[in-house]
Every structure is written in C-alpha cells, then in structure tokens.
Amino acid sequence: MQPHQLNPIIEPQFESVNDYIINHLGSNVPLVEKIGHYIVEGGGKRLRPLLVLLAANACNYQGKHHIPLAAVIEFIHTATLLHDDVVDNSDMRRGKDTANARWGNAPSVLVGDFLYSRAFQVMVEIGSMPIMEVISNATNVIAEGEVLQLLNCRNPDTTEEAYMQVIIGKTAMLFEAATEVGAILADATDEQRDALRRYGHHLGIAFQLIDDVMDYLSTAEEMGKNVGDDLAEGKPTLPLIQAMKAGTEEERLLIRQAIRKGGLEDLEPVMAAVKRTGSIEYTQQAAHSQANHAIDALSVLPDSSFKETLTTLAHMAVKRSA
C-alpha cells in the first residue's frame, strides 16, 4: 500500500496535488518541460507533499491552499534531486536513468533552478509570509546540508555528530518544513505548530537513517538505485562510521581506505564488516528512536484519522525495505 492510500479522505486531495504539479510544469522552453515531467512523473511516494496534507487536515484546515502548498514542497524536493544527481554523478534513480544521465549535467541543474523558482511563484500566490519564511529558510538550510555533505565526502574522520548535522540539513529540514507549513496554513496553535515541526524533524532523520541502511541491504531493483552508491561516492554514512568504531583494526583500515578512494572495489568486504559489527542494527535502532520521538510529538494534536495516519507513517518509515 502506498502511503497516500492509508487515509481515504486524503486520497482525492493527493490526486489533486498530482494534477496541480503536472499542470504547473509548463514552460516556453520545451526542454524545461520535458525534463520537469520526466523527473516529477518518475515515481516516488510523494511523501513530503503528503505530510503537508496530513498536517493541515490534522489541524482541521477547511480551505484549498494545502493543494498548491503540497506542490511547492514537491517542486523543491524534485529540484534537490536534480542537483543531487549531478553532484553525485548518479546514473539511476527510482529504477530509471537520472535526468543528468539522459540529458547531461547543465540542463539538469538549470531545470532544478526552474523548479525552485516555480515553487516560489506558487508561494506568492498563496500569499502567506510566515509560510514563505519557513520554506525560504528550509531551502537555505538544505543547500548548506548539501555543501556540508560534499565537504565530508571521502573523509573517514567524519563523526556521528557531523553525519547527523548533514542529514538534518539535507533531508529532515524539508520534512520539518512540510509539516510546519501545513500547521501554519490551518492557523494551528503555537503548540500544535511546534509539535508538527518536531514530528517532521524526527521523521526525516529516521527516513534518512533507513535509506543509509538500505545501501547495504537492498538490491538495486528494491532501491531504484545502484547498491553501494554511498560507498562509491565516498559518503561516510552511519553504518560505516559505527563499523569503524566497533570493528577490528583491519576492518577499520579497510573502511577508511574505501571511503577515501570511493568506488566499489571493496564493496563486499566492507558490507561484511558493516554486518559483522552490528552497524546495521545500530543504525536501525537509531531510526526507531527517532520515529518514536516523532510519534510522541503528536500527543498534543486532537485525535483524528489524520493523526493516526501520521503515526502509521512513522512506523512505515522504519519498516520499509525500499
């Protein structure tokens, strides 16, 4: 079951978001439209826009601006994917060629810029300065997170704290913005707004932790990207950081060398070390802890099917295999 199918009230709203996104990809430049459609229609669970809908509904929102606002979040997310794939030199996402693999780096970066600017055009139409403040701040923090990740690449001395700072910036920040703007739109109380912001923050961290685990557990078909991509790019994710802490001197040196040089030459022995040291379970446990924090944050919301769906999403985020 797809996440948006968990709640029958949300399903038609979710379809309206999809329609809105497709209808707002128009451009006078055909290549912009072609790449925009390719990446937006390329699959994915649309989890971030779903969070906008659920947060707004959980706070009893009765208007219609949550549809374009959810689309704004998806435009920003899609822009970051286009830019990420160029930075990481990725050739597969969601089981198909990345835009940069098909059209080249320059068009991918520029269409990413187009989607960012389209998001801000839609925000102006919504006309809420508090919402614009949250989203503009989030895009800034996301950019900083990406730069920080770039600085940590091929650095085996990256600490767990530095790694967490990266995933809070590059992943959790947009989750956090999605739930917070849904609350703002619904004129929620300050307590509810903060609760939904914290829910998104912890859910985003949990989601990324499991993503990083899957790089060592899933097949390419399950993930929609190549196995070992993180290692190939020299990214010191938590499974590797913990394996260096808990492993033998030989394993520690092996992982340090693999991070420094990148590539997949040492993938099998590194995967064996990650599994032997219990680093998969360590990262999964950290993800479960974050999901529990997310669920706890919801306690101030009134009981509703939307609150239940938010709780279920937190459980699903840490149980997924793809």
TrEMBL record:
Supply the alphabetized keyword list.
Magnesium, Metal-binding, Transferase
Q: Which cofactor does it need?
A: Mg(2+)
Q: What is its EC number?
A: 2.5.1.90
Keyword Cytoplasm attached = no
User: Per its UniProt record, what Pfam families does this chain match?
Assistant: polyprenyl_synt (PF00348)
**Has the keyword Repeat been applied to this entry?**
no
Reading the lineage from the top rank, the first entry is Bacteria
**Top EC class per UniProt?**
transferase
Which SUPFAM superfamilies does the record associate with it?
Terpenoid synthases
Picking any one GO molecular function of the record gives: metal ion binding
The GO biological-process annotations, alphabetized, read as: isoprenoid biosynthetic process
Reaction(s) catalysed (UniProt annotation): 5 isopentenyl diphosphate + (2E,6E)-farnesyl diphosphate = all-trans-octaprenyl diphosphate + 5 diphosphate
PANTHER family for the chain: ALL TRANS-POLYPRENYL-DIPHOSPHATE SYNTHASE PDSS1, GERANYLGERANYL PYROPHOSPHATE SYNTHASE
Its annotated function is as follows: Supplies octaprenyl diphosphate, the precursor for the side chain of the isoprenoid quinones ubiquinone and menaquinone.
The similarity comment for this entry is: Belongs to the FPP/GGPP synthase family.
Protein's name according to its UniProt entry:
Octaprenyl diphosphate synthase
Q: What gene name does this entry carry?
A: ispB
